[in-house]
Design goal:
two-stranded antiparallel ribbon; 10 helices; alpha/beta; about 20% strand; nine-stranded mixed beta sheet
């Protein structure tokens, strides 16, 4: 049974039952004020964290918008086979939505999913595994393909621990071990992303990630390529140029973005919109900018075409937009 207090607007530690194995899973929740239906945000922790780390990164935004909120553990740090996109971790997130629907009045037309880094990976994975749950999904500096990220981090002097953790999760090196290769495919968002083609997905990453951060921007671009129209795919040559040079090719620069800011330190450098997916590269590294997710969520409704208009509704939100660097 959940340990739940009747405290709206406050982060509360609870536990709920995961139907995959009948275990109790931990989470922080926060209830909106009032009895009318309110949107629900499911926010997912980063790769090397669990539910106890940074819950107020998104909780503060939910208080500002007066939305319901849950920040589940989904088996914690991605260094064991129960975590990192396992069937148990996926079901933990699905059951988090069911739990919140039982205890608060959720607006079923506005159920949102977000996260950055490892949480961005998990957001993309759940978008593909369970698109029926989400009104819209916002992810930051995400990993889309575990096998490719294993190779990228194994070749980097600064980020080899992530390659080792993928091997712990998958039971070996996915580039050489057939069993581990199958596990990596089964746990990779890229395997399922085409299922999310009918829901709005907003993908964001700093252009310097992979140089100042652990996830090359190609991971985000490849996720976009899986969801966009065939004629809008970003070429391998352009992707390689962006990753190597930390610059946008001239023919991909969008002059409509020249005055668009993700907060005072993060001008938008490139934006591509195709169908229900949007890709934004901004000045930054491995950053999560949660206020931008919430401003975008506020304009989305289930069953409607994505609303891609102005990023932030007022100057005050631009001033308060958090710039969080995570690994």
């Amino acid at each position: 049974m959940a340990r739940l207090q009747d405290d709206s607007g406050k982060l509360i530690e609870i536990s709920y039952v995961c139907s995959a194995d009948n275990t109790y899973q931990n989470a922080y929740i926060q209830k909106a004020f009032g009895s009318e239906p309110r949107p629900l945000v499911v926010a997912l922790h980063t790769w090397s964290c669990d539910w106890r780390d940074h819950p107020d990164l998104y909780g503060a935004c939910c208080r500002k918008w007066n939305w319901h909120y849950i920040y589940p553990d989904f088996r914690g740090w991605n260094r064991n086979s129960m975590a990192c996109g396992s069937e148990f971790a996926v079901q933990d997130i699905v059951d988090a939505v069911s739990f919140m629907k039982k205890i608060v009045n959720v607006d079923s037309d506005r159920i949102f999913l977000c996260g950055g880094s490892g949480g961005g990976y998990a957001s993309l994975l759940l978008a593909g595994r369970h698109p029926e749950l989400w009104t819209a999904v916002s992810c930051w500096c995400p990993i889309s393909d575990l096998t490719k990220w294993h190779a990228q981090t194994a070749a980097s002097k600064d980020w080899t621990r992530y390659a080792r953790e993928i091997e712990l999760v998958c039971g070996g090196d996915p580039e050489t071990n057939p069993y581990a290769a199958r596990e990596a495919r089964a746990r990779s968002a890229a395997t399922y992303l085409k299922n999310a083609a009918d829901i709005p997905v907003d993908i964001n990453t700093g252009i310097h990630d992979g140089h100042q951060g652990s996830v090359p921007v190609s991971q985000a671009i490849e996720a976009y390529n899986l969801l966009c129209r065939p004629e809008d795919v970003i070429s391998q040559a352009d992707m390689d140029f962006i990753v190597k040079n930390e610059l946008i090719p001239e023919h991909l620069r969008n002059h409509e973005c020249e005055n668009l800011m993700y907060g005072p330190e993060h001008p938008v450098l490139m934006r591509c919109v195709s169908g229900n997916v949007r890709l934004t590269l901004f000045e930054g590294a491995h950053h999560i900018l949660p206020e931008n997710s919430f401003a975008w969520f506020s304009r989305q409704k289930r069953g409607c075409s994505p609303e891609w208009s102005a990023e932030l509704p007022d100057d005050e939100m631009i001033k308060s937009s958090a710039s969080i660097l995570h690994e």
